[in-house]
From TrEMBL, chains A, B:
Its EC number is 3.5.1.114, 3.5.1.15. Gene3D superfamilies: 2.20.25.160, Zn peptidases. PANTHER family: ASPARTOACYLASE, N-ACYL-AROMATIC-L-AMINO ACID AMIDOHYDROLASE (CARBOXYLATE-FORMING). This is Aspartoacylase. It is a peripheral membrane protein. The keyword Cell membrane applies. CDD domains: M14_ASPA. It comes from Pteropus alecto (Black flying fox). Zn(2+) binds at residues 21, 24, 116. The active site is at residue 189. Residues 230-311 form the AstE/AspA barrel-sandwich hybrid domain. Residues 11-217 form the Succinylglutamate desuccinylase/Aspartoacylase catalytic domain. Pfam families: AstE_AspA_cat, AstE_AspA_hybrid.
Length: 330, 330
């Protein structure tokens, strides 16, 4: 496995972004609260910056105004000449690229933690862009151990345990999400929570997760070494659309036996959709997969009823301690 | 109690409306399915007409485009001269008034059943405009008995039992909702379901409820008499807003001990909100109330965290059989 390089210096420039999707309320309200009172985001070696990523969509309580902000952080959009007819989110991505990037430059922020909710029954989910990102994997493992100390080694047996999902991109494909403007980052995805609703239980859970992410960065910055470990992860392999009529309308929906079963095994022959006409549609794949983002509201328009993932066991090498910073000369 | 007059003739003109709010997917998808294949809506004495109430909001998967359609069926809006700058929903309300009304006229439809979802944990809820509407109360009781034959007399003890909620208006206040264009109507409110999500379980439940409503009208039309009964009902008495900052942003959210407890008793001194700063806000009323629509997404912008209701026991008089229709002369 070809690992990405790990940071060689303390992470000083860290941001926590919420409202990348304006109707995902846990991150929206936490960031609004931290903009009023940022004390919670301070650590000894750095202070994370709260950023409300999509203020217009947040004000309208919609995922986006013109297009999905979390898909437009590509060099094509970020470097094109600005035009008055640009979608709001493209303009906003350029602003965020100025604030937290520029993407792929030495001046970019060290880390962005991006806060999301899903209507799917995903529990606590940590999204990384690749299973080769040793630093991010250690952070996720730290969250698992910190939140579920008894069960971190037993992975799925504890429903409170955060799941790790890798959104591996195709070779050569450019990253496009909010965190990609920074040198590194992960997404937190908590559910189920309806769009436009703020549940106290998810807010509390997200707040605790953010604190643990910052604690991990603090530990790393102060020279902690982290030993090797094994962990389970889920890699997205493909998406599956709803059954539709010729006109493109829904012709059925997620089967009751699949609904709310994110991360559970889906075996060949099991029902996945229930047609309005009454019949069941069965999963015809050849191998067991692990569906996630089952019946996520925002994905209807993207033609996605759920994602199929494969389950992996990752052997993650140790994360060495930072070399001590040379003390200033006499 | 001053009862509304009951129908003296069979109900021939019946409509089932979905998509009054374009992101409440159970009604949207059922109506779309019935527009393709209306067989399910036929009974011996009538055929109900499926109506997609807000096509533009449905296409955008939003509650509304310009304003809440379910609030604009007032004579002010319906009779004002049309203007190109009218909100989309005002124009659409006039169209629906032509199709299903005119409101308060002899030509109006006999009955409109309006289909809704809520993000709140409301289970199955039947909304009537007044506890004086004998016909609607008999229909609701019929649904309770048909869906829960063992428990209809035991009201709250069965969680599957539909709750009856009365949105009593103030004396002299004009009705404004979708069903008000017809001579009579009720709303079905099923939850919890996120906006923009179609759950198979709620779809199946709503479909069964619609069938039972049509069955009741068929029974009434064919001369069935319905005996008197007692039933529990919840009358909305006031709304309660979220705690907010001076700027109007949320300063806290529904307390975990209140979340999902729709229709359960809320006693003085119990927590209702959890502030972001950590403190609890307690219910300071003097009597037990029964909160509903707790943390409904669409009500944030209306300044409503939940409604307080009072619990009533209604004594509903018998619904007499229709007088036999004179047979055609020789």
């Amino acid at each position: 496995m070809c690992s990405l390089p790990v940071p060689q210096e303390p992470l000083r420039r860290v941001a926590v972004t919420g409202g990348t999707h304006g109707n995902e309320m846990s991150g929206v309200c936490l960031v609004q609260q931290w903009l009023r009172d940022p004390g919670e985001l301070q650590r000894a070696s750095f202070a994370a910056v709260p950023v409300l990523a999509n203020p217009a969509a947040t004000a309208a309580c919609r995922r986006y105004v013109d297009c999905d902000l979390n898909r437009v952080f590509t060099s094509t959009f970020l470097t094109a000449r600005a035009h008055p007819d640009d979608p709001y989110e493209v303009t906003r991505a350029r602003e965020l690229n100025q604030l937290l990037g520029p993407k792929a430059s030495g001046r970019a922020f060290d880390f962005v933690l991006d806060l999301h909710n899903t209507t799917a029954n995903m529990g606590t989910c940590l999204l990384v862009k690749t299973t080769h990102d040793i630093f991010a994997l250690h952070m996720c493992h730290h969250l698992q151990v910190a939140l579920c100390p008894q069960s971190a080694e037993r992975a799925l047996q504890n429903p409170e345990l955060p799941f790790l999902v890798s959104v591996d991109q195709h070779p050569g494909e450019e990253t496009y999400d909010m965190t990609s403007v920074a040198k590194n980052g992960i997404g937190l995805e908590l559910g189920p929570q309806p769009q436009g609703v703020l549940r106290a239980d998810l807010l509390t859970r997200m707040r605790a997760l953010v604190a643990k992410v910052l604690d991990f960065i603090q530990l790393f910055n102060q020279g902690t070494a982290f030993p090797a470990f094994e962990m389970e992860a889920y890699r997205i392999v493909r998406s599956v659309d709803f059954p539709r009529t010729e006109a493109g309308d829904l012709a059925g929906t997620v089967h009751p036996q699949l609904q709310d079963r994110d991360f559970e095994p889906l075996r060949p022959g099991a029902p996945i959709f229930q047609m309005f006409s009454g019949e069941d549609v069965l999963y015809e794949g050849e191998s067991t997969v692990y569906p996630i983002f089952i019946n996520e509201a925002a994905y209807y328009e993207k033609g996605i009823a759920f994602f199929q993932t494969e389950k992996l066991t990752l052997s993650v090498p140790a994360l060495p301690a930072l070399a001590p910073t040379p003390s200033p000369g006499p």
